[in-house]
Amino acid sequence: MKGGLVARDGTILHAERRPTPRAEGPDAVVAAVSAFVTALTEHHPAPGCGSASGFVPGPATGSAPRAVGLVVPGLVTPARAVFSAAFGWRDVPAEAFTDVDLPVALGHDVRAAGEAELAHGLPGDAPSGDVLFVPIGTGIAGAVALSGSLYGGASGWAGQIGHIPVRPGGLPCGCGQRGCLSAYASAGAVAARCGETSAEEVLRRVRRGDAHARQVWDDAVETLALALATYTLLLDPELVVIGGGLSLAGPALIGPLRDRLAARLAFRRPPRVRASRLGPDAGLLGAALLAWRAT
Amino acid sequence: MKGGLVARDGTILHAERRPTPRAEGPDAVVAAVSAFVTALTEHHPAPGCGSASGFVPGPATGSAPRAVGLVVPGLVTPARAVFSAAFGWRDVPAEAFTDVDLPVALGHDVRAAGEAELAHGLPGDAPSGDVLFVPIGTGIAGAVALSGSLYGGASGWAGQIGHIPVRPGGLPCGCGQRGCLSAYASAGAVAARCGETSAEEVLRRVRRGDAHARQVWDDAVETLALALATYTLLLDPELVVIGGGLSLAGPALIGPLRDRLAARLAFRRPPRVRASRLGPDAGLLGAALLAWRAT
């Protein structure tokens, strides 16, 4: 988990990481988040505080943190972390995540990252505001921006691009379905399919000419292209922004992805595709946006 | 093509069909539309006039038609029919479709059908306004309603659910891609795969126990379920309305489709799915809505 101190203008004054004790169960994760937040506020004024991508916004002057922004995966309301397959929790109230005497703003990690991309990452880049943000890390999710606003759907579950069936009946996914995009193209899946601990290692093997790693990488790019072709046909975005850890692969990912997306679309032009300018910081900045709104 | 006379309140006062001379090329289709519109206005006051799903709205009193509403497939702007793969035209101005001295409102067939469903087909049925309309006929398209308004995307091409790759590398589609939903689940594809002239004939064979027809019908339902699962994961609709000719299959389509959609979604509930209450009239009513707005 990542935490930090972010000024109102989006300047990251301090950032740090702590391991998430996922194996110890949901209560341990919630307690670890709370301890992380407390530790960061105690180190004030230099640092701020954070959580599973949570942030205390603090002014650039070094004065006290003003609020805690906390973003988590799964189904989230402003009041509760309702469900997360990754952490196994159910109905955790926002207050349970911190012991500090500050307002707490709870949000969805990927949607918050999308808010940060809209606020900080798109200077004049997509006038229609029709943009898909796809952070690719352990898993894959999407933030759907339509006409400049994030779209949550009828029950707040929109954007689950990581679990659309790109290869019906294909590889099993942790969500219980088969053939999901995440099972092929998440950084976690790319690493696991090659017996590596990171997608970076897989990419190194690809560069050394390893045939298996090449096949896994090609599968990731091809299934991403299928998912983006589907999204493009349904929603006609102006721009697709790939974020998260895998976006750090840069041209090795974005170049072939553009080519394959164009090849999948016979009767229309593809949208522009580029790597995020915020990279893995988008989640941090999104949490900070939530927190500043709560002050 | 269908044409008719529609009152302001959506009452269809007159409707008729004419063959579309598709084989004779785009100019012949445009001329046939124009002749159809003229003939209908000349038969006034009883009938109205129409086109490739075009309508002249006329008041219920039998007074003169007030405008022409014209809806066509493909890429359309209010001023021009830009492109249609079905008819092969490019950049036909709205005025070219009629010779009569009435305002002409041009629109997209499926989007107009979606407008009619929103206006006439959803009394209190989906409070969020997050609804997907899928007319299934010769082809398949979708009208994407988000928060009660139709969404067109960055360049007006949203809703192409008929061409998402449900079976990557699968059957060729008329659009130039492979594995598109339309290649399995359109009424045209269902009929063609069984050597029949209509999907109704295929369904009759299914009921008589024909194994090939059963396989083709199952393929149609399964690929529709895949496409709706994908849409649901991306956009979280409250309701899916299946329209067009295939929706007349009723429970034989909707029942299995609901079951397979639920089976495809492991970690969330499916949206409600039902047949359109307007059926194949949705396009007519949508054209009339456009025309009445032009008066």
Automatic annotation (TrEMBL), chains A, B:
GO terms for molecular function: kinase activity. It holds the Pfam family ROK. InterPro entries: ATPase_NBD, ROK. PANTHER family: BIFUNCTIONAL UDP-N-ACETYLGLUCOSAMINE 2-EPIMERASE_N-ACETYLMANNOSAMINE KINASE (PTHR18964:SF149), ROK (REPRESSOR, ORF, KINASE) FAMILY (PTHR18964). Residues 1-25 are annotated as: Disordered. The keyword Transferase applies. Coiled coil: none annotated. This is Glucokinase. The keyword Secreted does not apply. Residues 14-25 have a biased composition (Basic and acidic residues). Keywords: Kinase, Transferase. Belongs to the ROK (NagC/XylR) family. It comes from the Bacteria.
